[in-house]
Amino acid sequence: MKTRKLATVFFSLFWIISVTSTVLASTLEDIMQRGVLRVAAQTQGPPFSFVNGKGERTGSAVELARLMAKEMGVKIKFLNYDWDGLIPALLSGKADILAADMTPTLARAMKIAFTTPFMYTGNVAFAKKDSPYRTLADLKAAKNLTVATLLGSAGTKVAAETFPNAKQKVYKGGGPFLIDAVLKGRTDFAVNDSSAVYAQVSNFPPNSIKIIPERIDKSPLAYAVRYDSPALLSWMDLFFLHIKLDGRLDANLDYWVNSLDWKNDHD
Amino acid sequence: MLETFNFRVIIEYLPLFQEGFLYTIWLSLAALLGALIIGILACIMRISQSKLSARIAIIYIESMRSTPLLVQLYFFYFGLPSLGILLSEVVTGILVLSLNSGAYLAEIIRAGVQSIPPGQTEAGIASGMTYYQRMRYIIMPQALGLTVPPMLGQAIILVKDSSLLSLISIMELTRAGQTFTSERFMPAEAFLTTAVFYLIIFYLLKGFSIWSQKKLIYTG
């Protein structure tokens, strides 16, 4: 009986100490103490984060995160998740930052804190090459279509608003699943972020997919931290300002996102 | 910890969970029926005197039991279309679950059949009964009764396995939890609610198991 009481007191003390100590230390200090920046990233999201032909992890977000760790003077550790697992991983404290091509929607911002956007993009619709639909207006007017989107992506909501007549099929995983679904005829068309679509289509047979060039919406992309990491957030904002001014951000985006240059080096 | 647990949002998502709950039950029942048919057929083939059909049944049972369900699901969903066979999500899901569970049920039923003393088969032969008659009137009624508890155990496993169908865009219980998480970023609320619904299915099956053991087991 006595040992049980003692154990209870001991564990409550331990709990209080661990809780208060996490409140006192900032995430930025934790990173410095640990010497490792833990980054939640996806594996199936070229050009932002993927594994190349040699089995190495790379992409725009991966390289920017590496640059971030270098500027911090710490090592980097990437944690792999499906798209819909990124935010839970950040919230549960498994990762310090979330580095992906994520749109800072107001819904997401209820839970996580976004940096200032590092670029602007938008969702596009795409279908099979021989599909009769050539414009967004065609897709909006058509009845009984199925639209595929990615679980947890901004495209799910955008597609529901833009194509109210279409039935949604929500895939879990990464953007390539959507292209596969379109090619196999599991869906009439799909909606996803344009930079991701253009990069990922290049991995499939040429001229099999038709991307409707018209953007459905305009949206920013940003990295994220938890709301309990204000110091880390302001450091990251400053980091983006610096690399924007010294040209390293544009060099990264021009290589990875605004062109298919990376395809030659990473197949 | 509990003060940040958001019951209001859970209530908001209850209609979605209800939809997933009913869909999980529907899929599981359909797959269970399929598994039962496949299981009985595979068991009969497995214990038949024909070497060929026994060999086919062994290959089926062993290949299903030795590979992960997720791999089977991905093969049927992503692999088969490349070979020219395109099945819808729901058909793929029910088919894979039936085939997978059918292999386990075949072995469960076989254990039941083999637990019937050989004297009864011999008595059947002595009475001039055919193979079919012996199976239909002597062996199966006893064997199936004995195997009800392990079969319900397998049914519970099947219900839990149906959560994998969320990976091929089927809107069942686990997908309801995933959707909740991806819209509100509340994994604790989402998956705890999901678990509670699975628990409800478990208790329904358990109740049926207790009832059926009283009713169905042939006690002589």
TrEMBL record, chain A:
Name the GO cellular-component terms. membrane
- List, in alphabetical order, the Gene Ontology terms for molecular function in this entry: ligand-gated monoatomic ion channel activity
A Pfam short name? SBP_bac_3
Q: Which residues form the Ionotropic glutamate receptor C-terminal domain?
A: 36-259
SUPFAM superfamilies under this entry? Periplasmic binding protein-like II
Which ranges carry the Solute-binding protein family 3/N-terminal domain? Answer: 36-260
Q: Which InterPro entries match?
A: Iontro_rcpt_C, Solute-binding_3/MltF_N
Q: Record's SMART domains?
A: PBPb, PBPe
Name listed for the protein in its UniProt record: Amino acid ABC transporter substrate-binding protein
Task: Give the species.
Answer: SAR324 cluster bacterium
TrEMBL record, chain B:
Main localization category: membrane
What residues form the membrane-spanning segments? 20-44, 56-77, 83-106, 137-159, 185-205
Q: Which molecular-function annotations from GO does this UniProt entry contain?
A: transmembrane transporter activity
Q: CDD domains given for it?
A: TM_PBP2
Q: List each copy of the ABC transmembrane type-1 domain by range.
A: 21-209
Q: Does the keyword Nucleus apply?
A: no
Q: How does the record say this protein sits in the membrane? A: Multi-pass membrane protein
User: InterPro entries, alphabetically?
Assistant: AA_ABC_transptr_permease_3TM, ArtM/GltK/GlnP/TcyL/YhdX-like, MetI-like, MetI-like_sf
| One GO-annotated biological process of the protein | amino acid transport
A single Gene Ontology CC annotation of this entry is: ATP-binding cassette (ABC) transporter complex
Q: Which family does it belong to?
A: Belongs to the binding-protein-dependent transport system permease family. HisMQ subfamily.
Listed name of the protein: Amino acid ABC transporter permease
Which organism does this sequence originate in? SAR324 cluster bacterium
Give the lineage: Bacteria, Deltaproteobacteria, SAR324 cluster
